[in-house]
């Protein structure tokens, strides 16, 4: 990770993403708490996350648009657009305005997909292939580290001041990210003209994912786990409310605990990718989510802390493994569409899962649902582990031996030639 952070271009991008990720970490949980506060419903609070993920179904169109433009200027415009779309939150006053939060959450889902697809291509241009896992690991470390303070800060700001200050800070973060990325100097060529008709161009990312064996297995396994992982977005509110008998804002404390595990996972993720490959790292991440969910079936705060640490550890391993796999196995001209399509294939089941979880939590005991999540994710992780040989670890580059300067050869002293007249006697 230190190697990639020594690169000036990546450090500049790193600073920009630090600003936008800080805004995101404060905002997303606060939106769900905002809805919970206005409605008193666990299901409606979890549905806020559903609203963010649901627009992922437009991923092929978003990816096609991203691939039509140069990465850096598009990334700047997308960050400015994200700041602008948050402004309607200033109009939220009471329960009747909850629909505004849902609309903003849905627009943010589209923006997140756009930024993620653009960032993937921008990283591919800035960082050599052998350092992609380190770059993704560094970004995930920051993202997970922000969970330590971001959600708590967002929940505290909302509880003491209200949503207007939270919205202002989030908008500022995205504007700062756009300004910093605008300073980045990247040599980019205009994208190649479309070689196929637009319906075929839209589906190019999906075709690549289905034809590449490692990507196909990764998305099938992770997609299976996502079918139930989304339950936890609503279950965590029920766990805090019904199990721990605490206020909904305490969810921010648990998310901060998850951030500790995520911080450790982010620091270890590039090492895990180098040891077991991208599919192996993805498998470890998905599998760790299983015991975390099983532990949460028992409402005890000490066990809950352990479960959230495991869940936090699993997330960066999953994301770094999948993101690095997509970047290494995809041609640059397709990267926007493939990244967006992979997000849709994972987030689609997850959106259904979040919606189903918001309904099921009102019908079934949340502990039973946590057990279901644990069993399914463990099975999905083990199936992914069986295919880890499709992505063997990338061997490190052998160290370049130091070049030994040529030794200057000192010529031997030349012996003087004999003088033919030396043996002549005078007068001869």
From TrEMBL:
UniProt KW keywords: Cell membrane, Membrane, Transmembrane, Transmembrane helix
Q: Where are the transmembrane segments?
A: 12-35, 47-66, 98-115, 156-181, 219-240, 249-273, 279-298, 305-326, 366-385
Compositionally biased tracts (Pro residues): 393-405
Gene3D superfamilies (UniProt xref): MFS general substrate transporter like domains
Compartment annotation: Cell membrane
- Mode of membrane association: Multi-pass membrane protein
Where does the record place the region Disordered? 393-428
Q: Which domain of life is it from?
A: Bacteria
Annotated Major facilitator superfamily (MFS) profile domain residues: 1-190
Give one Pfam family, short name only.
MFS_1
From the record, what ranges are coiled-coil? Answer: none
Q: Which PANTHER family match?
A: INTEGRAL MEMBRANE EFFLUX PROTEIN-RELATED, MAJOR FACILITATOR SUPERFAMILY ASSOCIATED DOMAIN-CONTAINING PROTEIN
Q: What name appears for this protein in its UniProt entry?
A: MFS transporter
């Amino acid at each position: 990770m230190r190697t990639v952070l020594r690169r000036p271009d990546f450090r500049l991008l790193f600073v920009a993403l630090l600003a936008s990720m800080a805004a995101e970490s404060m905002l997303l949980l606060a939106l769900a708490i905002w809805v919970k506060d206005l409605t008193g419903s666990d299901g409606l609070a979890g549905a806020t996350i559903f609203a963010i993920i649901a627009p992922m179904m437009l991923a092929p169109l978003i990816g096609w648009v991203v691939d039509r433009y140069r990465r850096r200027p598009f990334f700047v415009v997308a960050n400015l657009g994200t700041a602008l779309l948050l402004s309607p939150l200033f109009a939220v006053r009471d329960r009747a305005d909850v629909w505004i939060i849902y609309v903003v959450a849905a627009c943010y889902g589209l923006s997140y997909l756009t930024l993620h697809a653009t960032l993937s291509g921008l990283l591919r241009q800035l960082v050599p292939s052998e350092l992609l896992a380190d770059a993704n690991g560094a970004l995930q470390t920051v993202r997970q580290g922000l969970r330590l303070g971001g959600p708590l800060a967002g929940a505290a700001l909302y509880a003491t001041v209200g949503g207007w200050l939270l919205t202002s800070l989030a908008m500022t973060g995205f504007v700062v990210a756009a300004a910093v990325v605008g300073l980045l100097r990247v040599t980019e060529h205009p994208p190649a003209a479309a070689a196929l008709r637009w319906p075929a161009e839209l589906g190019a990312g999906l075709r690549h994912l289905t034809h590449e064996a490692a990507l196909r297995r990764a998305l099938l396994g992770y997609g299976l786990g996502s079918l139930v992982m989304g339950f936890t977005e609503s279950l965590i509110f029920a766990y805090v409310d019904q199990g721990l008998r605490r206020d909904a804002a305490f969810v921010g404390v648990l998310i901060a605990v998850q951030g500790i595990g995520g911080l450790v996972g982010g620091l270890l993720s590039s090492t895990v990718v180098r040891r077991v490959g991208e599919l192996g790292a993805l498998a470890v991440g998905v599998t760790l989510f299983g015991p975390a969910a099983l532990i949460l079936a028992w409402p005890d705060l000490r066990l809950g802390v352990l479960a959230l640490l495991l869940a936090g550890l699993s997330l960066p391993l999953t994301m770094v493994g999948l993101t690095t796999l997509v970047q290494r196995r995809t041609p640059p001209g397709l990267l926007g569409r493939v990244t967006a399509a992979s997000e849709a294939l994972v987030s689609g089941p997850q959106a259904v899962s979040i919606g189903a979880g918001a309904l099921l939590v009102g019908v079934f005991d949340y502990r039973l649902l946590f057990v279901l999540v644990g069993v399914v994710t463990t099975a999905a992780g083990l199936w992914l582990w069986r295919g880890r040989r499709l992505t063997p670890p990338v061997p490190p580059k052998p160290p370049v031996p130091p070049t030994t300067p040529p030794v200057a050869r000192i010529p031997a002293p030349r012996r003087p030639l004999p003088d033919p007249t030396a043996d002549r006697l005078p007068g001869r």
